[in-house]
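Recall that a protein's primary structure is simply its ordered list of amino acids. Everything else, from secondary elements to tertiary packing, is in principle encoded there. The following example makes that idea concrete.
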Amino acid sequence: MLEKAGVPVMLNELSSTVVFERPRDEAFVRKWQLACEGDIAHVVVMPNIGLDKLETFVADLITNRASVAVEATRQMAQMARLREASIDEEEGTARSSISDEEGITRSNNDKERVV
């Protein structure tokens, strides 16, 4: 099920342990009581677990991964907007400094003409 949903998994033949990438959302890890080590998580699928529970887990995992990806994209976009605003501000300050210097030069030239 996970592979069909686009989640890479490792499963040994005749094993009930499924290994996959650790979800980034710690609330999800706690909710499903995943055993995690570094970037890896695993679940042991016991014989008493029905197909409906597996489908619920897979759907929840996919939804969670999508939510995490959307939030990460929003954060990256916000950072890009902040960087762009900072650059615009720096350029505006630089333009202002150039305008101020030109004004001083013009002012000095005007004084030279008067004298």
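Helices lie at 26-31, 51-114. The chain is about 60% helix and 15% strand.
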